Each structure stands twice: as structure tokens, then as C-alpha cells.
Amino acid sequence: MYFLGGSTVRGGIKGLLGYVVGIVLGVVIFELLSLFGSANWWAMPLAILLPVISVMCLQEVEWLSYIPAIFIGCGAYFAILSYAAPVKPLAVSGTERWSAYLDAAGWELALCAVGLIFGWLAISGKGLIVDKLFPTQTSEAKDDVATSEGMRTS
Fold first, then answer.
1. Rounded to an integer, what is the distance from CA 40 to the centroid of its chain?
2. Coil vs helix vs strand at 147
3. Residue 18 half-sphere exposure, CB side, CA atoms within 13 Å?
4. What digits encode the pLDDT tens for the residues 24-80?
5. Are the CB atoms for 122 and 14 separated by under 8 Å?
6. Burial degree of 110 (CB within 10 A; 0-12, 13-18, 19+)
């Protein structure tokens, strides 16, 4: 998500906030699924439709407008709860359910933070390597290269 966010710290922070909103979205969907369980086939579409509409409105909020991060965060949360969590939230109730939600959220946020840090390290390392391997050319040399490639310099 760091690269899709423009490879900036600001984009990384927006990505992390998107993951948090995605986790909240996942909890809301699980809780609505539990509530609509008697609707049989319609339970899942209804549980997904209602929160997704509200998430789409977040594109107007500057720091929460990174919608792809929200949906990736929600999808990762579903994956953790479905495959990696020792306790399935819909199989239990009360504090045990909320403990399962928080445990999965902690794992996701930790792993997503590692991914964002690795993205930052990759971009920073690339900059250092490029600067060492290809020292800054004079602006005249850059203009010559751009002109030979058919690009405008202004």
C-alpha cells in the first residue's frame, strides 16, 4: 500500500488509517452477519452492502480517503479471522468474541506496519543506490537525454 499511496510517509499513514477502518468495517460486517443470520442467502450480501456504502462516502474525508487500503485491510482481516484466528468470532459470544476481534486486529496492524516500513525502506534504499551509482548529471546532459528520447524538458 505504501507504493500505491505515492511512496510517501503521508501515503503510508493514510494506508495505515485505511487498514484500521478496514478492520472496523470487518467487525461491522461480522456483527451484521450475525444479526442477519436468519436471512439465509441474503445475510452476506446485506451484511456487506450496508457498511460498504458508508465506506464509499469516506473518500470525501482527506485522511480516510484511501479506499483501496480500507478494502485490502478488510479483506486481510477476513482472512486472518477465517484461517489464522484460533477462535472464530461468530462461534462464540460476549467478551470472547471481542477478544478474538482484537487479537486478529493486532496481528493485522502489526504485519501491515511491517509492510509499510519495508515499503519505505525499499524507496529510501533505492534513492541511496541510484544516487551512488548514477551521480547527478548536469542539467544540460539531462536536457540532451530528454531531447534524444523525444520528450519535452519544459
1. 31
2. helix
3. 26
4. 999 998 888 888 777 677 888 888 888 888 888 888 888 888 888 899 999 999 888
5. no
6. exposed
